[in-house]
């Protein structure tokens, strides 16, 4: 007689504090709780939306849904969630840009007001996902588009403020730097008129600042770029204005641009001596119009090339 003895293993004791205690197939909707772990081993920081059919929760990686325990219903929920994939990806990219500056600046806790704003966006995203999982896919897409547009508008406004602030700082630095170079004799060493060069640099930067201020509200700012790119763009705008004014001043003094603007100098004089007010206005104009000096240089370049071709 052969007796089969089946040894029963004790039922496993799962705990929400152990990320490895569940497998994906064993994990159920009721097992997902704040303070525990999801099937991928990520800590669940908060449950943003919970109904009988699904839960939407927050981890350090972002917002995620947990679908229904019923496989067929879960399949429909996954299909609805995938339709929001591109919109959610864009939204997450913008959220990272919104919070990246604070993370770079320090590891201190987020101020209460900024934390509230972040919670608002997280819960609104959870609401959009919930609408999709409940079968309201078009409503979810419209809500997500509106939420993404609001976040993009906020980032664009922040970029405009950065542009204006950097422009002001750059103008102050150019004024200080031009006076410092004048005091050190950097201009007079080459027999340049230090007063006029300093005036050209300062007025060109002021023209660039005025241009930024005038078109600040209508300025096109890409909300998807990282914050320090706004610093680069703003620095470039003032630098172009100051250098453009300086190049225009050199062209006038060299006689290459003589007669281009009214009041370029007294007739019959070999040396062009621009009046201070006239020079100030022309340099402000060069700083205000970003394309003025490049267009002049391009026109002069084409004239030089044409004259060389004619002499051959």
Describe the structure.
The protein is mostly helical and 312 residues long. The protein is 59% helix and 5% strand. It is built from eight helices and three strands; from the N terminus they run βββαααααααα. The chain has helices at 71-82, 85-105, 112-133, 137-184, 194-214, 227-254, 276-288, 292-311, and strands spanning 46-50, 55-59, 62-66. It has a three-stranded antiparallel sheet with strand order 1-2-3, with helices on one face. A hairpin with a 2-residue loop joins β2 (55-59) and β3. α4 (137-184) runs antiparallel to α5, α5 crosses α7 (276-288) and α6 (227-254) packs antiparallel against α7 (276-288). The radius of gyration is 32 Å and the shape is elongated. Residues 1-22, 103-107 and 263-270 have low confidence and may be disordered.
Distance between the termini: 116 Å
- Count of DSSP E strands? 3
| Class by alpha and beta content | mainly alpha
Q: Sketch the major β-sheet.
A: 3 strands, antiparallel
Oligomer: single chain
Spell out the blueprint of helices and strands.
Blueprint: E1 46-50, E2 55-59, E3 62-66, H1 71-82, H2 85-105, H3 112-133, H4 137-184, H5 194-214, H6 227-254, H7 276-288, H8 292-311
Features:
single chain; 312 residues; mainly alpha; three-stranded antiparallel beta sheet; 8 helices; 3 strands
Describe the structure concisely for a colleague.
59% of the residues lie in helices and 5% in strands.
């Amino acid at each position: 007689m052969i007796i089969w003895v089946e040894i029963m293993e004790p039922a496993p004791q799962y705990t929400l504090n152990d990320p490895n205690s569940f497998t994906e197939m064993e994990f159920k909707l009721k097992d997902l709780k704040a303070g525990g772990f999801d099937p991928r081993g990520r800590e669940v920081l908060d449950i943003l939306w919970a109904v009988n059919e699904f839960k939407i929760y927050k981890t350090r990686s972002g917002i995620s849904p947990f679908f229904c325990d019923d496989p067929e219903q879960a399949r429909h929920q996954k299909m609805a969630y995938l339709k929001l994939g591109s919109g959610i990806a864009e939204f997450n990219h913008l959220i990272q840009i919104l919070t990246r500056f604070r993370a770079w600046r320090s590891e201190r806790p987020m101020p209460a007001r900024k934390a509230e704003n972040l919670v608002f966006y997280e819960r609104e995203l959870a609401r959009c996902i919930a609408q999709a999982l409940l079968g309201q896919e078009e409503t979810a897409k419209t809500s997500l588009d509106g939420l993404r547009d609001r976040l993009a508008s906020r980032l664009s406004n922040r970029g405009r403020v950065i542009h204006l602030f950097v422009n002001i700082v750059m103008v102050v630095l150019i004024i200080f730097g031009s006076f410092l170079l004048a005091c050190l004799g950097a201009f007079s060493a080459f027999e340049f008129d230090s007063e006029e060069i300093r005036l050209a640099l300062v007025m060109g930067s002021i023209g660039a600042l005025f241009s930024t201020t005038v078109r600040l509200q209508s300025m096109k700012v890409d909300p998807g770029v990282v914050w320090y790119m706004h610093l680069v763009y703003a620095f470039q705008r003032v630098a172009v204005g100051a250098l453009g004014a300086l190049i225009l001043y050199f062209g006038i003094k060299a006689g290459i641009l003589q007669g281009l603007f009214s009041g370029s100098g007294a007739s019959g004089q070999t040396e062009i001596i621009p009046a201070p007010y006239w020079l100030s206005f022309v340099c402000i104009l060069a700083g205000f119009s970003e394309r003025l000096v490049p267009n002049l240089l391009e026109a002069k370049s084409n004239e030089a090339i044409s004259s060389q071709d004619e002499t051959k």
